[in-house]
Every structure is written in C-alpha cells, then in structure tokens.
C-alpha cells in the first residue's frame, strides 16, 4: 500500500477461491466490505488467478516478467510448490526481479516452518513481555505492530534493492522475517539486558530511563502525558509548577537522581496533579515548552484540526458503492513529488480483464481463461 501511495503500479494477486482472508475479517463493515481489508488495500489493482492451473501460472509469470518487484507472504516452501519461488522466477522469467518474501520467521532457521500471525510473533519476539502494567497479564499493542513493522522494513529494503539494481543491474531476493523485525525493535531493552543480565520489566506508560515520563491523571479523572527528557525541561517544569526548589533538590536535580527516587517523586507530582483538571496541566506544560498532551481517543484524532491540515484524513470515490470512502493519508511528505490515493481498495479480480489485456492477451484468450477457471473476475 505504501509503495502504491508513492506512485508504484501495484497489482494484487488473489486466488480464485475466497481470496484475501482479511476480506472476511469483520465486523465492522463499510457498505458490506470488511473495514480491516479496506484499511490496507488502496492503490492496488487486483487480478484473481488459480496458480495451480497451467494457464494461471503462465499469466503469473508474464506479470513477473514485466514487473520490477514481486512481494509474497506465503509460508516458506509454498512458493516452490507453486513454481513461483525466487530461484525459478530468476532463472526462467526475470533475472532482474526484486523478490521480497515476508514470513513469520524467515526462510531459514529452526522456526522457519512455524506459522506466524502478528500476535504469535509479537509474543515470541519479546515485545509482549515488556508491554503493559507491572504485575498484570501481558497485553498486545493496539495495532498489529508485528505485521505493520515488517511491512515498513520491507518497503525500505525494496527501495534499497531497486537502488542497488540501478547501480549494478542485479536483482535479488529479500528475506523479511517478522520475528527478526520484532527482535530488531528491542534496541534499548536489549542493551539494558546486555548491561545488567536482567530481563527488562514492564513499565506501563512510564520509561525505564527517564522520569517523569509517563501518563498522569488530573482532578477530573482525565489522563495526560508528560515527557521530560532532560534536566533543562525538568527545571522549566518546576518553575511552571511553582516549585522551583524541586529543580535543585538533590533527590530530583538530575535524571539519575529522579530515577533513584522515582516513587517519591511520582507521589509528590500526583499530589499536585490531583488538584486541577488534566487540561490545566497540559496548558501549563505547553506554555512552558514542556512536551505534554492528552491521551486522545481515535474519534478525537480523526477530527483533530492538525490531522486534517496535514492531509492525514482523506476521502476517495468508491465506484463499487457509489459513495465516498474515508482513508488515512500518507504520513510522508515530499517537496518534489506528491503522494496520492488514486484507487480505492479493489474487489477480488476487479481488474483481471484490464491487466490481462495490458500484458497482451486477446479477448478470446481471456474468455478461455475465465471458462477454465484460471482467472476470476469481480462480481458484486
């Protein structure tokens, strides 16, 4: 989806059966379509192929021959059975292809054949053990962080591989393991373990190395966050709080001091925060240049004037329903190019005939493909 936002012509290949499983991930739905599917499939054209037929495989290979990049997320070994693995594509179809495989645990290693949904990889990659409140059961992040971070890593790897091909003329395979990505995200926590030999614990909303840096609650029961990342910010906050002596108190003067006396410090701060509503403390902190803010609900984020001004909320036409479809905008902005949402998320096989025509098949050949089940077209 991100590559499509950046201007790539993305062709989504689905099977001729039930297709992308996230089409059935509901409720909720929008005009009868899975909201989950609609969240990640814009800027893609769609062809439905039966790769177990000779004709379906032929079509796939013809697409691969004229493509720069091939992305697949089967379990390791499946592409070889389907005869669309990297070595086969490279040797017989397109030697310059950038072939990106995204799997739960990678193409090698003892966990290679493990099935890897987001939750499993998030748990086994270590992040779940440090997420949530201390002495409470482990929790998952509110978004599929293993899936999404693997996709982000894949984008950077694909762009790097395309740059490498431009310089050398050589394509290559990219092996993205969701588990590897989760391990790579452990940076700070891993170094803490290397330093102490102890497993990092869960800190809830607080920070393992900074104080005060967490969520607090105002007198109205509303939560807000305060992020004091250095001693200058702490001094400025103490002045704004009306307690300048806190900044020179040996117990709180430096961040190591504050971490050493964290429980006492939090007790003192909570006593102050309990006297005024959250908005008061946010405004006070903001005026003093202290990073702070409310804990916004999704509805509040999606109606926020800053979010709207930054084009992070967009509407596109959905010809299948005849109605507008809201989408989250693209986070990256360029000075010499503009990202855009050109296409709504596709129906299964919505562009099958269009794509087949583009790669040289005649109308009679296309009708034959449809008749023998090699290709499926979208039906409302």
- β-strand number: 13
Q: How many helical stretches?
A: 17
Task: Specify the overall morphology.
Answer: elongated
- Percentage of residues assigned to helices: 25-40%
Q: Average pLDDT across residues?
A: 96
Q: Enumerate the spans where pLDDT stays under 50 for 5 or more consecutive residues.
A: none
Distance between the termini: 23 Å
Q: Give me the oligomer status.
A: single chain
Beta percentage is: 15-25%
Question: Which radius of gyration do the C-alpha atoms yield?
Answer: 26 Å
Order of helices and strands: HEEEHEHEHHEHHEHHEEHHHHEHHEEHHE
Q: Write out the strand line-up for the largest beta sheet, numbering strands in chain order.
A: 1-4-13
Largest sheet: 3 strands, mixed
Name the structural class: alpha/beta
């Amino acid at each position: 989806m991100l590559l499509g936002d950046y201007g790539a012509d993305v062709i989504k290949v689905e099977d001729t059966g039930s297709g992308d499983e996230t089409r059935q991930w509901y409720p909720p739905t929008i005009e009868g379509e899975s909201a989950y599917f609609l969240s990640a499939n814009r800027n893609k054209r769609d062809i439905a192929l039966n790769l177990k037929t000779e004709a379906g495989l032929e079509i796939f290979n013809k697409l691969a021959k004229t493509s720069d990049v091939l992305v697949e997320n089967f379990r390791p070994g499946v592409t070889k059975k389907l005869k669309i693995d990297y070595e086969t594509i490279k040797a017989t179809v397109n030697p310059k292809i950038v072939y990106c495989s995204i799997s739960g645990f990678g193409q090698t290693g003892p966990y290679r054949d493990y099935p890897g949904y987001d939750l499993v990889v998030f748990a086994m990659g270590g992040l779940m053990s440090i997420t949530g409140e201390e002495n409470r059961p482990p929790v998952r992040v509110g978004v599929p962080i293993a899936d999404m971070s693997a996709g982000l890593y894949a984008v950077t790897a694909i762009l790097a591989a395309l740059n490498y091909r431009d310089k050398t003329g050589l394509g290559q395979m990219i092996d993205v393991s969701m588990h590897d990505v989760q391990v790579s995200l452990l940076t700070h926590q891993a170094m803490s373990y290397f330093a102490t030999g102890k497993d990092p614990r869960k800190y809830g909303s607080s920070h393992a190395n900074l104080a005060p840096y967490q969520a607090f609650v105002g007198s109205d029961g509303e939560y807000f966050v305060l992020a004091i990342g250095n001693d200058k910010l702490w001094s400025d906050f103490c002045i704004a709080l009306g307690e300048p002596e806190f900044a020179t108190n040996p117990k709180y003067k430096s961040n190591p001091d504050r971490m050493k006396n964290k429980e006492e410090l939090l007790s003192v701060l909570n006593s102050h925060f309990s006297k005024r509503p959250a908005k008061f403390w946010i405004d006070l902190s903001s005026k003093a240049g202290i990073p702070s803010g409310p804990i916004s609900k999704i509805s509040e984020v999606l109606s926020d004037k800053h979010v709207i001004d930054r084009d992070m909320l967009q509407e596109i036409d959905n010809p299948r329903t005849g109605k507008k479809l809201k989408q989250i905008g693209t986070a990256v902005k360029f000075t010499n190019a503009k990202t855009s949402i050109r296409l709504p998320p596709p129906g299964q096989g919505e562009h099958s005939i269009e794509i087949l025509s583009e790669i040289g098949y005649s109308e009679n050949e296309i009708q034959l493909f449809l008749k023998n089940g090699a290709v499926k077209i979208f039906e409302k």
